[in-house]
Amino acid sequence: MADVVELTDAHCDALLRFFGDLPEGDRTFIREDVTDPDVVRGWAADGTSGTRRWVALDGDGAVTGYVAVLRLPGWSDHVGEVRLVVSPAGRGSGLGGELARHAMVQALEGGLTKLVVEVVAEQGAALALFTGLGFTGEALLVDHIRDRDGELRDLMVLAHRVGETWAGMSAVGLDEALGDSS
Ligand SMILES: CC(C)(COP(=O)(O)OP(=O)(O)OC[C@H]1O[C@@H](n2cnc3c(N)ncnc32)[C@H](O)[C@@H]1OP(=O)(O)O)[C@@H](O)C(=O)NCCC(=O)NCCS
What we know:
Blueprint: E1 3-6, H1 12-21, H2 24-27, H3 37-45, E2 52-57, E3 63-71, E4 79-86, H4 95-109, E5 114-120, H5 124-132, E6 136-146, E7 152-160, H6 174-180
Parallel strand pairs: 4-5
Antiparallel strand pairs: 1-2, 2-3, 3-4, 5-7, 6-7
Helix pairs in contact: 1-3
The structure holds coenzyme A (COA).
Coenzyme A (COA) binds at residues 26, 29, 83-86, 91-97, 117, 119, 123-126, 128-129, 132.
């Protein structure tokens, strides 16, 4: 299990290095300008927006994964949007699932009742990960984004009603994550 901690000032340089090393296509999943040091430092300082962010750290303090839950504003403030990325070298060993489960548990404990995540339709890994955690397709936005080559791609919105699913949590390992949560 990786060390998953809430983002603080102390992690900002390591997080900037992590984002800087990502292929450009992966950075687009985060949507904020993650190469701008002021943006990333602002995240750690921001305790008011309802957004929570966590990083996975290796033994040397390098960031190997990032997950955030952004609380939507106004009449959707019961909904959180998940953004998740794992370093290319660290993929396929369970870290993405661990970060996603951590974010789900924290979102539940923080009072959110619904989570959504936007996934590019071709992103097999992200689709497998989130559907495995109980997310289901809620919208398909056709030709909604352009990739780096300018090609139009479909975007899927997956959703999970976390508040309704306490009973089913053991099926996706959330009960274990709850035991670990801090
Ligand atoms: C999606 C992403 C976070 C997955 O991270 P990861 O650490 O490789 O994920 P895991 O190792 O925990 O795998 C999670 C599940 O996805 C499946 N999976 C992983 N890579 C896969 C692939 N290339 N194709 C199909 N399924 C895959 C695994 O089988 C696993 O399921 P299992 O636990 O039942 O075996 C990572 O690929 C990534 O950062 N992608 C770019 C950003 C992105 O797409 N973010 C999601 C939208 S915000």
